[in-house]
User: Fold this.
Amino acid sequence: MTSAENTEQVVVRLDGVRKEYGEAVALDGVSLEIRAGEAVAVMGPSGCGKSTLLNMVAGLDRPTAGSIAVHGEELGALSETGLALFRRHRIGMIFQFFNLIDDLPALDNVALAAQLTGTPAGQARRRALELLDELGIADRRNAYPAVLSGGERQRVAVARALMNRPALLLADEPTGALDSHAGEQVMDLLIDLNQMGQTLLMVTHDKRLATRCASRLIEFSDGRVARETALERTA
Assistant:
């Protein structure tokens, strides 16, 4: 593989990223790369910088120093409007508590992500229904979040995250609010997505999620990368 081809395979690159909140240092000179098709899990104690890392990669927060590039886009060069467009087109996000809109049924929660990028409503709804069908919950398309189980809500959230075919899927404690059965189902779903080529970056406290779903584990401590480990997925 040539160096040019190798560079094209890098989906996320952080170079010397530091983030300060007043006197507190959340990230302290973090450099790392995530390549296309990887599933990377980030673990560490509360307050070690995991969520800050995810927010930086999503363009939700800006570093105090250093640079971040996602799919070749230097985030520091983008305006707030540019970052919003970047998130809509390039990034899919899954949250611990789903972040669904309570007064929209499942189908509209999913379709909205594409409509916000200018996709016509009919086309957006067709793709949303395809995704819900692929994730096994098309029969719940007209149900509102309040009547969905935790596992169903997370599947709707995953469908929404995939609507715009993102280069990178970010997951913040994706099984943290689920019972063990629903958590296992979401783990299986993340494995399937990655095996189909989706690049994943997950933040989790759940060692089982990391060892089942990730190909690489990055352990954080005090805002720094303490250790990186290649993983063999467990059953």
